[in-house]
Amino acid sequence: ALVVVGAILPLAYGDVVLDVAEHPLVSGTEYHILPVNGGGLGLKMRENNSCPMYVDYNNKQQGLPVVFTPYKFVKPIVEAADLKVQVSAATVCAQSTRWRMKFDNRLNKYFVYAGSASSSSKRDLDYFRILESEIYGNVYVLSFCPSVCDNCRPVCGLLGTYTDKAKN
């Protein structure tokens, strides 16, 4: 599952985000998120095969395509812009496939799930950012630090993976 790991500071808009073919990312176009160590991102039920589905890393598959939609229309998509991320696939859950944040009290972590807004997920805060990696060249990282709400104090951090005791 994807979780927020580490803290980051809000950033100003940056350079144009490029895909693997070095073309600018365009709002509404399907893209696969390809982790540096291979595989891709998909959706998976976390516990008891119940909805909502959580964003999941699979090291053996390319994953499901996503569509990025900026909060403020910018063309092309630039670094640090607030983005809605939506999986472009149908699921067994009769819910939205838009990425959202949800806090797990038991694990004391924020997880990325796909679905309708819940009481622990404020709509204004369900935006993500693409940032250039400070470690790898020509690589981007995904972060959570929306600026769409002037009066909000969101949790900020880079997205990372979480593995439970059952190796999920």
Automatic annotation (TrEMBL):
Gene3D superfamilies: 2.80.10.50. One of its GO terms (molecular function) is endopeptidase inhibitor activity. This is Miraculin.
